[in-house]
Amino acid sequence: MTKEINLSRHYSAQRHETTKSDKRMLALFATIAVWCAAWCPAENRVELIDIAPVWAGHKVAFALLTHPPYQYVAYYDDQRRMTVATRTLDQTEWSFHVLPETVGWDSHNYITMAIDSTGSLHLSGNMHVAPLKYFQTTNAHDIASFMRIDKLIGSEESRVTYPSFMTGPAGQFIFTYRDGSSGNGNQIYDVYDPITKHWSRLLDKPLVDGEGQRNAYFSGPMRGPDGFFHLCWVWREDPDCATNHDLSYARSKDLVNWETSQGKALKLPITLSTGEIVDPVPVHGGMINGNTKIGFDTKYRPVIAYHKFDMAGNTQLYNARLEESGWRIYQCSNWDYRWDFGGGGSIDFEIRVQPVTVDEHGNLTQGWQHKKFGNQRWRIDPETMQPIERIHDSRYQLPADLEKPRSTFPGMLVQFASDTGALNESGVDYRLRWETLGPNRDKPRSEPWPEPSMLQVIKIYK
């Protein structure tokens, strides 16, 4: 089913005799309608394309990959089975293929998907400190040809979490994941040759090593406008998420040779004692993995967004910017609220930070979501890094009714996923939408469970 929503207001004349004043008003309304059609925010017009009903008992992330003329979606269906759907962009009908994996209650077990230069699809997911689960198509663009790959390299593949695909500096197809467990893990990078269909290690040793005492949670590597790949991470001592500490950083031109922000070579693997610490946030200091974001300012300088407790014990948003003298820390919020998180398992985030970005007008902006203060986006002074004003940015918003659950089951939340694929047709963006309960620290919920929700692609006309 395809449903179109257009929230722009339209006016039409009633069939009755009008006065001159009425005619002038109607002419004005017609002018406003034309102006709105050309200039009203693009989030006011979206198209919803149904895919299939999906499991709604807990949150676990899905994957959307657009590779014109095709679009692919990987998700857990209403029976919790790992499933891939595909369509061509000019059609609304989907083809489906079910893979031999079923998700339990662990919200870590998201799905990620990518496509290589030959058109072969790669998919991984449903892992939390578990043996590698990896699928690849034998025929280009053909989801029915997905086959399980038992091993890539063969070593350090028995305790896999956080799979991710990325593109290297020379276009390499790279797969990365954590080997090990929370508080004791290393990051692994494998590179694939689509011609020989052979996997090899990008690095002959882990990039970062927790030395059996801790592990790193990463944001990146992200290629910046300066040509470097930028990477930040927090260290964590054990499964308790309150033990995150020491915001750290490294950069590289080739993902093999790494250095500090000042160009000093780093010997691999990087450890807590040998790495560059941006902000020495202590254990129980209010910093959490998953909320460190890399952005860039108008001078292409890296800016790391994160949160921690202030002197009064409240949670605040901070930005660390690389300047001539080194990293400078800016407190950018003044909230009278403390997010006192802790414990193991997947949790609901009461605060989410977004990276600093430069908009189409050259302004520095930053968005965030807060349990008490809602969702906002700021324009930031590029010199002081302080918020100047609250702004509306259509690139980050959808029609209000899409942000609210349709289900009446208590506790339901709307979930979204961004498109990780290639650049789409001009003026169009895609996202996934579905509804679930939140995470439950990776433990089963007692019945009753909510009915399956409809997974949809949102086609956004910018």
Description of the molecule:
With 462 residues, this protein is mostly beta strands. It has a domain at 1-40. It is built from one helix and 32 strands. It has one helix at residues 20-39, and strands spanning 2-6, 45-54, 63-67, 70-76, 81-88, 95-102, 111-115, 121-125, 134-137, 146-148, 160-167, 173-181, 184-193, 198-201, 215-223, 229-236, 244-252, 258-259, 265-266, 276-279, 293-296, 302-309, 315-323, 326-331, 351-353, 357-358, 364-370, 374-380, 387-390, 413-418, 428-436, 453-461. The strands form seven sheets. Strands 15, 16, 17, 18, 19 and 20 form a six-stranded antiparallel β-sheet that branches. Strands 1-2-32-31-30 form a five-stranded antiparallel β-sheet, with no helix packed on it. Strands 25, 26, 27, 28 and 29 form a five-stranded antiparallel β-sheet that branches. Strand 13 (184-193) and strand 14 (198-201) form a beta hairpin. The longest helix is centred in the first third of the chain and has 20 residues, at 20-39. The radius of gyration is 24 Å and the shape is globular.
